[in-house]
Write a structure and sequence with these properties.
Elements (H helix, E strand, L loop, with lengths): L13 H18 L1 H33 L4 H51 L8 H13 L3 H29 L1 H47 L4 H4 L4 H56 L5 H42 L17 E9 L11 E9 L3 E5 L6 H8 L7 E6 L2 E2 L5 H5 L2 E4 L10 H6 L8 H10 L3 H6 L21 H15 L3 E5 L7 H14 L4 E5 L11 E6 L2 E6 L1 H7 L2 H13 L3
Parallel strand pairs: 3-8, 3-9, 6-7, 7-8
Antiparallel strand pairs: 1-2, 1-4, 4-5, 9-10
Helix pairs in contact: 1-2, 1-3, 1-5, 1-9, 2-3, 2-5, 2-9, 4-9, 5-6, 5-9, 6-8, 6-9, 8-9, 13-15, 17-18
Length: about 600
């Protein structure tokens, strides 16, 4: 179940909001420095245009009332109108032409920083649901959030300048009306902030249900779940959940609706009815009773009143949304300011000679379980050896390979690389010596060659790619592909894309390791998607292509382990047996028992 956040987690004090907004604006200054200056200029010009509009109204009506020269009035109107038209054209250019390009540049720059940061995160960050959710939200929202912040901060100074200027004009025209607006708008603003807080609470409560609904929606449209939905009754279960969640969401909306009704009514009276009807009625009465009030003053007062009312409302709306921006920025800051714990300073990592584990224990930090996945594991792996980790599911084999690659560091004990603690080395440089094929390997929407090299392909890499595919027993399939190594894989972005079978995809993943020319190769269930004959052929190819390399196999199929120099049998996170295949069979322990069961099934000897 998703946990609801405490209400105070959705509110930031003004100082923090300002600090977060400035932090985000630095991205705009960094990638599009002209954007901020253009925005400032636009703010000043638009505020001036608003004030000019009020003053022009007064001038026109006073001039008509005093029967001034029509041509003079017309020229004044044309000059002011032309200036306002130029300002509006500048605004449209900034908003429609310059802004989209500027925001794209900001987005590209931010995404590059996010991707670089994501690659440096500890693997444990992906195990932390709260951090991971914030990380995903930060990347997804960055598309337009900075642009919206800049746009909103453009509006706020416009409204503030306009507010001060119009209030000054209104105070000059009618001080009592100006004071009336101060009181009315002040109370209205206070109520609007209260409404905003209630709306935020409502949004937070609804988010609890929206996350559950989002999961159900994804379940019904994601291709990798389509087959399961057509079996059993899981679809009926989720349809029932859909009804339950929507019913609870409806009750939540009703509850918040009742709370908002009274306060919204008070807000409408103070910020709409009184300013509009009250101010207009007051001005009409004053104009009738006060013979000294000119038609221009009357008209300008009405326009200034309406402008003041609209500006106040708009300003409050934009100020309240700043808190939402701040909540987002806080997640971005948390993500960007995260400092990895799996670190090391030494970048010059020597070629591999020996790995040694001494009393290694490990528990996943966010698993919710206190018990160790690995306990007091000690072993040695030497250059050129073929090592096998075997055992039933949950024995800790895959977790151990993650420690060997320094995706995590041990909770206890140490891992020595050539006699030196692996923690002294930079993780990125250390991993350049280790290639791995994981159980949950992925094929990317790119060409076969790009999938094999794991990045951008160049013509000079052709022989390396072909050799790696051959070592992974992919030759037969390669000959059938329409464009050879340049064939697009998956149909995600190309109708000419080719979909590979599970076994073929696994071979491409294995080819990546051979293409990388690593000192150590970790193959986690390298033949799980293959039939026994294809498995045997692949194993022979791997042995032939890795004579001078250190290979670590993880497998449930023990036919693979027979070619290992040394086998480690794991059970409940501990090594319970070790030795060659012949030694372990002679020991007649758990390995021998497991092997004999599989020998009957696959008829292996």
């Amino acid at each position: 179940m998703t946990k609801k956040k405490k209400k105070n987690e959705n509110k930031h004090p003004p100082k923090k909001v300002l600090k977060n907004l400035i932090f985000m604006l630095k991205f705009s200054a960094k990638y599009t420095p002209k954007y901020l200056w253009i925005t400032v200029i636009d703010s000043v010009l638009r505020a001036a245009s608003t004030v000019a509009g009020v003053l022009l109204t007064k001038y026109i009506f006073d001039a008509i009332e005093k029967e001034q020269d029509f041509l003079r009035i017309l020229i004044t109107v044309l000059i002011v109108g032309g200036a306002q038209a130029a300002i509006e054209l500048f605004f449209l250019w900034r908003y429609e032409v310059y802004r989209p390009v500027a925001e794209l540049a900001i987005h590209e720059g931010m995404q590059k920083e996010f991707y670089a940061k994501a690659r440096s995160l500890d693997q444990s960050c992906y195990d932390d649901p709260e951090f991971y959710n914030d990380f995903i939200w930060a990347i997804r929202e960055s598309d337009g959030r900075v642009g919206w912040i800049v746009l909103n901060l453009n509006v706020v100074p416009i409204r503030i300048i306009s507010l001060i200027s119009i209030f000054g004009i209104l105070a000059y025209l009618d001080i009592w009306l100006a004071l009336f607006f101060v009181v009315s708008s002040g109370l209205g603003m206070y109520i609007k902030f209260a409404i905003s807080r209630r709306e935020l609470d409502k949004k937070n409560d609804l988010n609890y249900y929206d996350r559950e609904l989002s999961y159900i929606h994804r379940t019904f449209y994601m291709p990798d779940r389509a087959k399961e939905l057509r079996q059993g009754e899981i679809s009926e279960l989720y349809r029932g959940e859909l009804a339950r969640i929507n019913e609870e969401k409806t009750e939540c909306k009703k509850k918040h609706g009742k709370r908002l009704l009274g306060i919204s009514t008070a807000s409408a009276i103070l910020t709409n009815t009184l300013p509009n009807a009250g101010a207009t009625a007051y001005l009409i009465i004053r104009y009738i009773l006060d013979s000294g009030m000119s038609l221009g003053t009357f008209s300008a007062s009405i326009q200034a009143s309406l402008r003041l009312y609209w500006t106040m409302n708009d300003l409050v709306s934009f100020i309240t949304i700043m808190n939402e921006h701040s909540l987002y920025v806080e997640k971005v800051r948390k993500f960007l300011e995260y400092e990895p714990t799996v670190v090391g300073d030494k970048k010059d990592v020597p070629s591999f000679e020996k790995l040694e584990l001494r009393g290694v224990s490990f528990a996943y930090p966010f698993s919710g379980e206190a018990k160790n996945i690995l306990s007091d594991v000690s072993l040695e792996i030497n250059k050129g050896e073929k090592i096998a980790f075997v055992g039933y599911n949950g024995a800790g084999k895959t977790t151990l390979t993650k420690l060997l690659m320094r995706l995590y560091d041990p909770s206890e004990g140490e891992i020595l690389y050539n006699g030196v603690s692996s923690t002294v080395y930079s993780p990125e440089d250390y991993r350049q010596h280790i290639g791995a094929v994981f159980q949950d390997y992925k094929i990317f929407a790119a060409t076969l060659a790009e999938n094999v090299v794991g990045g951008e392909y160049e013509d000079s890499m052709e022989e390396r790619v072909r050799s790696a595919l051959s070592a992974a027993s992919f030759d037969e399939k390669l000959g059938s592909l329409p464009k050879g190594i340049h064939t697009q894989l998956t149909t995600e972005f190309s109708e000419e894309g080719v979909g590979l079978s599970g076994g073929e995809s696994q071979k491409v993943a294995i080819a990546r390791v051979f293409a990388g020319d690593f000192d150590i190769m970790i193959l986690d269930e390298p033949s799980s998607a293959l039939d026994p004959i294809a498995e045997y052929e692949l194993n022979q190819s791997i042995l032939k292509s890795s004579v001078d390399k250190t290979v670590i196999f993880i497998s449930h199929r023990l036919s693979t382990t027979r070619m290992a120099d040394r086998i480690y049998m794991f059970d409940k996170g501990r090594i319970i047996e070790s030795g060659s295949h012949e030694e372990l069979m002679a020991l007649d322990g758990r390995y021998a028992e497991m092997y004999r069961v599989q020998a009957k099934k696959y008829k292996i000897e």
